[in-house]
Amino acid sequence: MQLEKNSCREYKGLNRSNLIKCIVIAFLILIGVNIPYVNLIALLLACFFIFKGTAGETAELLFFVLTFSTIFKLHPEGKTLFNVLIAAAIVKFLFLKPHLKLEIRELLALLAFVSYVLIFGGTNAMVKLTSLTMYFVLMLLLFKQQEKIELRSLLLFFSLGIVLSSLAALNSRYIPGLTSFIQYARLKIGDGEYLYRFCGLHINPNFYTMDISIALAGWFGMVVGRRTKLIDYVFIVALSVLGIMSISKSFLVMYAVLLLLVLISFGKQNIGGLMKGVFMIGLLIALIYVFADKEYMHAYLNRLLRDRSSDASLSTITTGRYDLWMGYLDHIFSDLKLLLFGEGLRAQHYALRPSHNYFIETVYYLGLVGSALYCLCIRNIFPERDLSVKRSFVNYLPLIILLVRGMAINLIMRENLIFYYIMIAVMLNTDLQRIKKEDSTEAVSFQEQQKLIKGVKWT
């Protein structure tokens, strides 16, 4: 039965062997911040694991190590070694399936995009173009493999990486050399008083909470579809608390949108579902209040109260982003050539300040023509729809969150972005329909499902 297959697949446990590999790599990376060449050992070991593992194990490892990528360097100002792992994964996928068949439309889209960037950006854009192309190719090849990528496994490894890297950042004073990699933003809370905004191993709270946002969107989809275990709720609470500690208003907006969408999804089931949704959200908020540092909660409250003041404007509410958006849009629309073809990937930020908007920065760098080619590449690297999967509203949660948060963050050149798209693609091809008890002899009862998954354990 199809339902039997889906049920077993959704409750697949955490790969213990791969978990140990990830922990070892994370340990070596943390040592490497003080003894840089240990990172080379971590790199070689990670590449070995990638070449030896399955496609699913490779994806899990990449999602985990991604959360440590900001310190996976030979020195604080150096380039991350994580891109080497992406290159290794690409090579592995090519050899894992030697008779790989790429469609003409996929190759033409990539070729058109690469040619366009080189024509209008010149060879100076080669480094950024190479990175961007690698990200596209990684996702394209990942979904060309025969193995199905499991949503819960990706979420577990991604969430575990976020939590462990965050714990490392919280205890950075005990890890030799780590403080040199961390530069926290400060928030003024009074005359001469500042509070450091927690952002894990990132230097920007928005980048940090973007990872958390995508992970939470995936988890909430699993919750609505009743595909979760107790440990999954532990991750949901932990990620929520860490997000609150960033004192990021864009994260708070995302969180409110996400809870509202989850409540609507529960409400669409029946009145019992609505009551369950209200209870779960209330319990989650209570747990966040219990575990979150009250100083961060008060800082959030102060930021929101300032936004409600009579002299508040769109600029203050968006922390200056509105002025940046308007400045970029005025600049873009002032020149037809710029509007159509962009400034090129190697261009400096306008007025030396980032746009803080994924969509505006895409047009700024690539123009409308290049943005269309960029979107075409993204469309072509997505896997074909699994027609056996009945999508529901919750399947689109990560995509909705990316669109919402993308309006307040720069993303186009971050390696994290392609992993968000991978998560979105896996979510879209995962059956999250709510399991129902039915009297039909072809339906699988809840007790029968438990028998099917008996013996399958998570770590």
Describe the fold and architecture.
With 459 residues, the protein is an all-alpha fold. The chain contains 20 helices and two strands. It has helices spanning 2-10, 16-32, 38-52, 55-66, 82-96, 104-121, 126-142, 151-170, 205-224, 230-244, 249-269, 271-291, 294-307, 314-317, 321-333, 336-341, 358-381, 397-405, 416-428, 446-453, and strands at residues 186-190, 193-196. The protein has a two-stranded antiparallel sheet with strand order 1-2. Strand 1 (186-190) and strand 2 (193-196) form a beta hairpin. The longest helix is centred in the last third of the chain and has 24 residues, at 358-381. The chain is globular.
* Classification by helices and strands: mainly alpha
E-strand count: 2
Which percent bin holds the helix content? 55-70%
Question: What is the CA-atom radius of gyration, in angstroms?
Answer: 23 Å
Q: Supply the number of helical segments.
A: 20
N/C terminus separation:
27 Å
The main pleated sheet reads as: 2 strands, antiparallel
- Strand order across the largest sheet: 1-2
Low-confidence stretches: 1-11, 437-459
Average of the residue pLDDT scores = 86
Give the strand content.
under 5%
Shape: globular
| Element pattern in H and E | HHHHHHHHEEHHHHHHHHHHHH
Which helices and strands appear, and what pairs or packs with what?
Elements: H1 2-10, H2 16-32, H3 38-52, H4 55-66, H5 82-96, H6 104-121, H7 126-142, H8 151-170, E1 186-190, E2 193-196, H9 205-224, H10 230-244, H11 249-269, H12 271-291, H13 294-307, H14 314-317, H15 321-333, H16 336-341, H17 358-381, H18 397-405, H19 416-428, H20 446-453
Helix pairs in contact: 2-3, 2-4, 3-4, 3-5, 4-5, 4-8, 5-7, 6-7, 6-17, 7-17, 7-19, 8-9, 8-10, 9-10, 9-11, 9-18, 9-19, 10-12, 11-12, 11-18, 15-17, 18-19
